Amino acid sequence: VLSGPASTFAGEANSLFTIRTYDAFGNLAPVSAETRFSPVTNSGSIGAQEVVFTPSVVIIPAGNSAATFTYMDVLAGTHRVTANLTQGNAVGSPYHEIQVLPGPVARFALNGPGSMDAGTRAQFDIVRYDQFGNLVNAGNNRVYLYTGSTGENKGFYTQSSGGSPVAFVDITIGNNMASMWYEDTRAGTFMLTASDSPTAPDGLTGIED
Description:
By secondary structure, the protein is an all-beta fold.
């Protein structure tokens, strides 16, 4: 039997799993010979830095009935961890499902059109991600909006027409994005920035702009 936590956070390597061997009546039963398992997951993460089992081969020594290992994954979602039996007389390859939750917000992404007509409004979506690229729905974030335009008639809005300009939008708990509209009457190429800083864009400081 494989047991482990119900959930963990992406990138955390403290998820302890335990393999135990039992007899037909549900009693712990020591193995008669060294028994080995190779943990795997169906998460879809690829690469040594994305999924880590420690140790990669789990050994229950002869005369023992349990062994442990830790699991780390960077891909959020509900994954099945299976301990594949590779050596010994234990029966089957036990599995356990665990929910990997996104980590804290690490960056904002600003998605929108590459061009717009002067005097019109264009919609932009601000999306929040953890450091591994997982969408983050937890918590609240206030996102401050900046433009490099020097035009007098420019602004960010929370609706496609009407309303008053705003300096920020909020991404609320349960959501991974918020939308805003940008309007400018000056022609040119300008940088729009979504930042966690209320005074000026701050690049990699705090949450990456």
